Amino acid sequence: MPATHEEILQKVQATLVEALGVDEEDVVPDASLRADLGAESIDFLDIMFRLERSFGIRIPRGELFSENFATDPELAADGKLTAKGIEELKAKMPDAKLDDFIADPQIDKIMDLYTVDMLVKYIASKVN
């Protein structure tokens, strides 16, 4: 039987509370992992491993959290995504709210786009 959205949300919330040491009431669907919950670069790897363990899935490197934008000259220049980079970001993060980001596509702000709800949708696509 497929996991419900609510079941996945609860497990994701528990994972983030454990990984980031945040309060459960702060882990709401639209909370940004970095901006709202204080996740740092190293935390994203920990979150990925914990999600794999919690849900019994395998998350290929770079699939959930994009890594190649800053290093690929076709995707980024002068600290910002190129038009091709923005298109690739849209493809990799179809559930992200990108309007504000596209107005000023700074690479160092990509991690602010990851929300609790995006994790839930990603996990749902893997387990159902």
From TrEMBL:
Record protein name field: Phosphopantetheine-binding protein
Ranges for domain Carrier: 6-83
Keywords, ordered alphabetically: Phosphopantetheine, Phosphoprotein
PROSITE patterns with a match to the protein in the record: CARRIER
Domain of life: Bacteria
Source species of the chain: Isosphaera pallida (strain ATCC 43644 / DSM 9630 / IS1B)
CC terms in the record's Gene Ontology section: cytosol; membrane
PANTHER family: ACYL CARRIER PROTEIN, CARRIER DOMAIN-CONTAINING PROTEIN
One GO molecular-function entry: acyl binding
Listed GO biological process terms: lipid A biosynthetic process
